[in-house]
Specification:
Layout (H helix, E strand, L loop, with lengths): L11 E8 L7 E11 L2 E8 L4 E10 L2 E9 L4 E12 L2 E8 L6 E9 L4
Length: 117
């Protein structure tokens, strides 16, 4: 499965592949940049057909990267929580839930490069 002793090493630029909570066939892809400032991670996603911009702030809790995220459309701000686990040195997998949606989505992150650290 995965190494339970693997520490989170998430700084970098990632490709994102996932599916929405309401239907595993409702898939999306995009990119994610993860930066770290002290003990806090800052995440910036661009996902979906229209490259919806989402941002998040998180921290590592017991080898999980726990992130509160939000994004906006013309009328609303949507908020949620995503929890990632490092699978190997280049891969993180996570599940997410959003306010008002009572099912769980999933996404997989593949490291493209470490970027500027």
């Amino acid at each position: 499965m995965f190494d339970t002793n693997l520490e989170i090493d998430a700084i970098g630029n990632y490709s994102v592949d996932g599916h929405n909570p309401w239907d595993e066939e409702s898939k999306y892809s995009g990119s994610l940049q993860i930066q770290k400032n002290d003990n806090q991670y800052h995440l910036d996603w661009a996902v979906g057909i229209s490259n919806i911009y989402q941002k998040g702030i998180g921290k590592v809790i017991k080898n999980f990267l726990v992130v509160h995220f939000d994004y906006k459309d013309k009328e609303h701000t949507f908020k949620g929580l995503v929890i990632y686990r490092q699978i190997d040195k280049d891969t993180l997998a996570g599940f997410w839930i959003e306010e008002g949606i009572f099912e769980v989505g999933f996404e997989c992150l593949k490291l493209k490069n470490r970027g500027f650290q």
